[in-house]
Amino acid sequence: MIFNDRLKLLRAERGLTQEQAAKGIEMPGRSYQRLEMDGCKTHYDTLIKIADFYDVSVDWLMGRTEKREVNR
């Protein structure tokens, strides 16, 4: 699954623990762990928070493009 691999990559690039990333996204640590482990589905609002936190596009997170940049 692309989503969980990219989520792990982003966290590693920032040198964060799962708990630190979860706190930055304002979600429970266990929920963040599940996203990285099996790429479980998440709510739209959480997906936006993740993209904003890591400053990447939702399309890149979901594997729809290779461009990380956010179109604003």
What descriptive keywords fit this protein?
72 residues, mainly alpha, globular, single chain, 434 Repressor (Amino-terminal Domain)
What are the SSEs and their pairings?
Elements: H1 2-14, H2 18-25, H3 29-38, H4 44-54, H5 58-61
Helix pairs in contact: 1-3, 2-3
Verbal overview:
- The chain is mainly α and 72 residues long.
- The protein has a single domain, classed as 434 Repressor (Amino-terminal Domain), CATH 1.10.260.40.
- Helices cover 64% and strands 0% of the residues.
- The protein is built from 5 helices and no strands.
- The protein has helices at 2-14, 18-25, 29-38, 44-54, 58-61.
- Helix 2 packs across helix 3.
- It is globular, with a radius of gyration of 11 Å.
What is this structure, in a nutshell?
64% of the residues lie in helices and 0% in strands. It has 72 residues and is mostly helical. It has one domain (2-55): 434 Repressor (Amino-terminal Domain).
Helix content: 55-70%
Q: Counting H and I runs of at least 4 residues, what is the number of helices?
A: 5
Question: Which band does the percent of strand residues land in?
Answer: under 5%
Unreliable stretches = none
Query: Could you give the count of β-strands?
Result: 0
Main structural class: mainly alpha
What's the shape? globular
Distance between the termini: 27 Å
The CATH superfamily turns out to be lambda repressor-like DNA-binding domains
| Structural Rg | 11 Å
Structural domain count: 1
Mean pLDDT: 92
Q: Profile the largest sheet.
A: none
CATH architecture: Orthogonal Bundle
Q: What is the CATH topology assignment? A: 434 Repressor (Amino-terminal Domain)
- Which class in CATH terms? Mainly Alpha
SSE series: HHHHH
Quaternary organisation of the protein chains? single chain
